[in-house]
Every structure is written in structure tokens, then in C-alpha cells.
Design brief:
Length: 281
């Protein structure tokens, strides 16, 4: 099978003292929404940046659509992969439509088509067309992040890399952005690799969650796999109560915790009940 992205025995260090990624093996299918989850400094961003070659790896193989990274023209590869980051990085002297369609300009697309595409993309990310002529400084934080996502989608990429793209906005806007992204993914079916340290965000978005710790993949699977079948004590403690509360109503959990605390129900029975509840929902 040809995967969208394949990491095989990938290792990476910035300095001789610290191994940042160690023996990473991960194969991502076309259309998957994979979330790289882990604490600050565990290596998520580094792993993501290997895909569009913003960073080099030291050992192993990386294939994009079955072809080795080294066999690509790197500029072309970068332009064909969408990339959205928390800092957004819009060009301050360009209007919104120019920012959104910049990659198309590089590809030689004419101005009329670029304007039309920018307009359609703005609509897709839930922004009004009036914003097309604004400059980035005239946008709110949430609007900037939406423009960032629109820009990443401009070249109709089959792969989107997203590094905490909704990190700098309030909770409500963040939830809206997440919902919108899920809709876009359902509609366009790109392969998305999304970095976050937020368990709730990971569970809302990912069809597969890859949990990273100290530069290694410690477990991958669905949210339910991680919560109900943690492979190591680290996975169990990392997810903790947050993992359960990302999957269930707080009121349900409170009641169960109370019953376990009072000795009315044992922990195993409680977990089995939750898992059953989840599979029925
Ligand atoms: N340019 C660099 N030079 C040296 N060390 C670096 C460099 N960039 C990152 N590192 C180190 O590599 C490790 C992994 O960093 P990385 O940014 O990949 O982590 P992360 O999981 O994305 O963290 P965060 O969630 O805080 O962004 C950290 O220990 C970091 O200090």
C-alpha cells in the first residue's frame, strides 16, 4: 500500500547531547486525520517539520506518497503541502486575499483566478468576503488563524501540516475553528497531521492519536484505545482524568468517581461501564 506519509526508523538530534526523535515509525494513510500529542518539548514540531523538509533528519527514511523525500524538488514539495502554524505568519504588507493566494502566485496563476480562489477559501473557513481587502493588522486573532488555514488550503494540498494552529485564541473560538476544520476535512478529505499538547483538542479532531514522549511514540490509536487500553503507566498518567473528561460528560464522571470513592463500585467495573457507554454512543 502506498501511504501519504511514512516515517521509517527516523532519528533526529540538534546537538550531540540530546536525541530529539528516536526510531520513529509511523505510516499515515491518505485522508487520515492524525494528531501528534505530547508534552511541551517532546518533539512534535520537529517531527512535523521533517515532512516539508524545514528540518533534516539524521537517520531513517521518510516517504511522501511512496517517494523518498530526497527524490523531490523541495520547493515544489513545500508548495504542495499546506502548512499552518500558531503564529500564522501572514505578510503584513499584503491584503488578506494576497496572503491567502500567495502560493498560487508562485505557481503562476493569474490574478483573477487568485482573487476568486481567495474568496472561495475565505468562505470555506467561515469568514466574510469583506475581509478580503483588509491587511492582517485589521483582523482579530481568530480571524488571522482562519486566514492562516485558508492560506494553507490554497494550493488544494493533499497533505496539511498544522502546528497548534488554534493555540492563541479563546476557548469558544477554538471550538468553532476545530469544528470548521473537521467539516473541511470531511469535505476535502486531505491527509492532516495536527500537533497539539491539548488532550481535548486531540480527541475532538483526530481519527488517530499518536502520543509522543521524549522523542518516541509511546502509543497510537483512537482516543478510546488510549483511555481504556493504555500500554504504559506513562500513557495512563498523561491522560488521567482529562482523558476521561474529553470523552464523557463531567456529571457522569463525577457520579462514578463518587461511587468508586464510597466503595459502592469497584474501579474495573466502573471502567467497563464507561467503555460500554462509549461504544454505544
Ligand atoms: N533549533 C533547535 N536547536 C536545538 N534544540 C532544539 C531546536 N529546536 C528544538 N530543540 C529541542 O528539541 C526538543 C523538541 O522540540 P520540539 O519543538 O520539537 O518539541 P514540541 O513537542 O513541539 O514542543 P512544544 O509543544 O513546546 O512546541 C526540545 O528539547 C527543544 O529544546
Amino acid at each position: 500500500m502506498e501511504y501519504a506519509i511514512e516515517f521509517e526508523h527516523i532519528s533526529k538530534s540538534y546537538t550531540p547531547e540530546e536525541v530529539v526523535l528516536s526510531d520513529i515509525n509511523l505510516a499515515i494513510q491518505q485522508g487520515e486525520f492524525v494528531v501528534l500529542l505530547g508534552q511541551s518539548g517532546c518533539g512534535k514540531t520537529t517531527l512535523l517539520k521533517l515532512v516539508n523538509n524545514l528540518l533534516d533528519f539524521d537517520a531513517g527514511y521518510l516517504r511522501i506518497h511512496g517517494k523518498k523525500l530526497s527524490d523531490y524538488n523541495i520547493e515544489e514539495l513545500r508548495r504542495s503541502i499546506g502548512y499552518a502554524i500558531q503564529q500564522v505568519g501572514l505578510f503584513p504588507h499584503m491584503r488578506v486575499w494576497e496572503n491567502v493566494s500567495y502560493v498560487l502566485k508562485l505557481q503562476g496563476v493569474d490574478i483573477q483566478q487568485r482573487k476568486e480562489r481567495a474568496e472561495r477559501l475565505l468562505e470555506l473557513v467561515g469568514l466574510k468576503r469583506e475581509l478580503l481587502m483588509r491587511y492582517p493588522r485589521q483582523l482579530s486573532g481568530g480571524q488571522k488563524q482562519r486566514v492562516g488555514v485558508a492560506r494553507a488550503l490554497a494550493a488544494n494540498p493533499s497533505i496539511m501540516l498544522m502546528d497548534e494552529p488554534f493555540g492563541a485564541v479563546d476557548e469558544q473560538t477554538r471550538t468553532q475553528l476545530q469544528d470548521q476544520l473537521k467539516q473541511i476535512h470531511r469535505k476535502l478529505g486531505q491527509t492532516i497531521v495536527f500537533v497539539t499538547h491539548d488532550i481535548r483538542e486531540a480527541f475532538r479532531l483526530g481519527t488517530r492519536i499518536v502520543l509522543i514522549h521524549h522523542g518516541s511514540i509511546v502509543q497510537e490509536g483512537t482516543a478510546e484505545d488510549l483511555v481504556f487500553r493504555p500500554k504504559t503507566p506513562f500513557v495512563r498518567s498523561f491522560l488521567g482524568r482529562q482523558g476521561f473528561s474529553a470523552l464523557f460528560d463531567e456529571a457522569v464522571l463525577d457520579k462514578l468517581y463518587e461511587r468508586v470513592g464510597q466503595g459502592k463500585q469497584d474501579m474495573q467495573a466502573c471502567l467497563a461501564l464507561l467503555e460500554q457507554k462509549k461504544s454505544q454512543s
